[in-house]
Design goal:
It is a single chain. By secondary structure, the chain is α+β, with helices and mostly antiparallel strands. It has one domain (4-260): Sandwich (Jelly Rolls). The chain has eight helices and eleven strands. Strands 1, 2, 3, 4, 5, 6, 7, 8, 9, 10 and 11 form an eleven-stranded antiparallel beta sheet that branches. A hairpin with an 8-residue loop joins β6 (159-163) and β7. α2 packs across α6. It is globular, with a radius of gyration of 17 Å. The two termini are 25 Å apart.
């Protein structure tokens, strides 16, 4: 399913691209999977509004964004994709790319199939840094595999990447093309999101999200998602900076909502 032969052809060159990319460490890989097989899986993706797929818990910082962590249940193609993402072969490749001893989270906590509906957006943010259930797992990369066949620029939904260490960072805009994978480092400066989309009625901005972790010797200092909305009012921007503290308190009392909704 995954085009391993192409990925493994020159890992050292890929690693240089990843490490030296601007504005943050990332790489864009087209033809990531067998296109024919992946295309055949698209018709097996249900409309989330008709199937009651759970909306993401991103509060006011996202709109009409749906998640299904157990995406492998949709069809054999996605089941094969999941197996390969969790394989030792893929772990070896992603570790070579990043220089870290890394593996993909087998639970796809917060990941899996993501769908953005009418006017969907995702405010700029940095992701949580340690796995909420396995606190010795340090989150190091996001892998986003886009499923938007027939995408047009007018639809919007470009992935935006920016460097939060800079006062002014011109974002990199990456088109969410079908069978394109984006692999990005996740640090407290790795800002990313997407602006409101204009996909046709009944269609969705779709991707498979997988997160790579490194096993650490001890628990790290956990951080939940921190939001940096760009065009919102002052109150929302203030909440974005401090929402992670509120979420931490809520999770300590009630547990992880993301984990419960699997």
């Amino acid at each position: 399913m995954i085009n391993f032969d192409a990925l493994e052809h020159n890992v050292e060159a890929q690693r240089m691209v990843f490490l030296n990319a601007s504005p943050v460490e990332h790489i864009v890989i087209d033809d990531f999977c067998n296109a024919k097989a992946l295309r055949g899986a698209l018709c097996r993706i249900p409309d989330p509004l008709l199937t009651g797929t759970t909306k993401s818990r991103d509060y006011m910082f996202a709109k009409n964004k749906f998640e299904k962590s157990d995406f492998e249940q949709l069809c054999p193609v996605f089941a094969e994709l999941k197996v390969e993402l969790l394989s030792a072969r893929f772990a070896a490749w992603i570790s070579g790319l990043t220089g870290e001893d890394m593996f993909i989270d087998p639970t796809f906590h917060g990941g899996g199939l993501h769908q953005g509906g009418i006017d969907s957006f995702l405010d700029m943010h940095v992701d949580f840094n340690y796995h909420p259930v396995n606190p010795t797992w340090r989150r190091d990369i996001n892998l986003l595999l886009y499923l938007n066949e027939g995408w047009q620029r007018a639809y919007g939904g470009h992935l935006k990447l920016a460097d939060g260490r800079l006062d002014v960072s011109i974002p990199e805009l990456i088109e969410p093309l079908f069978n394109r994978a984006v692999i990005m480092l996740t640090r407290d400066y790795t800002l990313h999101g997407y602006d409101p989309i204009a996909f046709p009625i009944g269609s969705y901005r779709r991707s498979i999200a997988a997160y790579g972790y490194t096993q650490m010797a001890q628990e790290g200092m956990g951080r939940t998602t921190v939001w940096y909305p760009e065009t919102s009012n002052r109150l929302k921007r203030l909440l974005g900076r401090h929402m992670h503290k509120l979420v931490r308190i809520k999770s300590a009392l009630l547990g992880s909502g993301t984990d419960k909704k699997r």
